[in-house]
Design goal:
- By secondary structure, the protein is mainly alpha-helical.
- It has a two-stranded antiparallel sheet with strand order 1-2.
- The longest helix is centred in the middle third of the chain and has 37 residues.
- The chain is elongated, with a radius of gyration of 26 Å.
- The mean pLDDT is 83.
């Protein structure tokens, strides 16, 4: 089994698509450091002057008109609390550099999503190309035990994706830390950020496994990408057209992306609309709920187990031609 895994790793790394994907990924992660650099850079003098002018104009407008605005609001039926207009402060207009923890967290979240998608495509192409070219037939002739072939391919992709996720997270975190030192930004929560980077490698591994299994089930790289695109369309509709529906918000704990975010972020917070009837009519209030890391881990463990078992049964029993 070890020799099979080593052979599959060698074949994976020698593929042209893998090399091109990794180069593009490296360029993308490097390019994103310009965004991190901009967020950590101190504010220039011209920007401070523009912020000061905007603050002065807004504050003068508040001094001259806030009583009129509040009176107009109350006349339309608003309560005193709803119609109160707070006095503008300079902090609302200042553009201070983004704190290191916030910038690094955003960089890890973005990079983990990109790396996971790249891992999905590499894994889908790895087995999908063998179906398309027919090389899987020759391989099964040489190694007729399909179970060993399946597990060797899957284990090689798992190891590859975990290392890819860990390397990408380390690269992004090191880049953000270097830029923070250059701009004399206060660095903090390095341990928590490192742990987040380690958890992001689990997300990369999960997407790689899905890409491999979907390609096995559909017997084509395009089939796996079609499944991913189809879910992306469903996600877009759920988050845009159907976003106001209560059942959509209540289904968030059972969606793959929310549970994946709970794993990476060690907890994911979302809002659920609650309708309350008062003397003034029906009001919608949003209550925050949290998905725990444990919930996300159990959800994805069950999902991956189901998908792997299904693809294994199909691979063992269906003709590969």
């Amino acid at each position: 089994m070890t020799r099979l895994v080593v052979t599959e790793v060698t074949r994976l790394l020698s593929r042209r698509f893998t090399g091109i994907a990794l180069i593009l990924l490296l360029l993308g992660l490097g390019g994103y450091q310009f965004v991190v650099n901009q967020s950590l850079s101190p504010v220039a003098g011209e920007q401070l002057a523009a912020a000061q002018r905007s603050y002065e104009q807004s504050h003068q407008d508040w001094v001259d008109n806030h009583e009129k605005y509040e009176q107009d609001c109350r006349e339309t039926g608003g309560t005193a609390e709803q119609c109160t207009i707070p006095e503008p402060t300079m902090a609302e207009f200042s553009m201070a550099p983004t704190p290191f923890k916030e910038a690094a967290t955003t960089a890890l979240e973005v990079s983990s999503a990109v790396i996971a998608l790249v891992a999905f495509m590499i894994a889908a192409s790895f087995i999908g190309a063998e179906y398309t070219s027919g090389s899987i037939v020759n391989w099964l002739t040489f190694i007729p035990r399909r179970g060993r072939v399946f597990w060797s391919k899957l284990l090689s992709l798992v190891g590859f994706s975990v290392l890819l996720g860990a390397f990408g997270a380390a690269l992004v975190l090191a880049g953000a830390l270097t830029l923070a030192r250059l701009h004399a930004s206060h660095t903090e929560s390095l341990r928590q950020l490192a742990e987040m980077g380690a958890r992001s490698s689990l997300a990369v591994m999960g997407l790689a496994v899905l890409g491999f299994c979907f390609a096995v089930i559909t017997r084509h790289t395009a089939g796996a990408l079609g499944v991913l695109l189809g879910y992306a369309i469903v996600w877009f509709l759920r988050m845009s057209v159907l976003a106001e529906r209560q059942w959509v918000q209540r289904s968030i704990p059972w969606t793959p992306e929310a549970n994946l975010a709970a794993i990476v972020e060690h907890g994911y917070t979302y809002s659920v609309p609650i309708q309350k009837v008062t003397g003034d009519g029906a009001n919608i209030e949003f209550v925050e709920r949290t998905l725990s890391f444990t919930h996300g881990a159990v959800y994805w463990s069950a999902l991956l187990a189901l998908v792997i078992l299904s693809s294994l049964l199909i691979f063992r029993r269906r003709d590969v031609i």
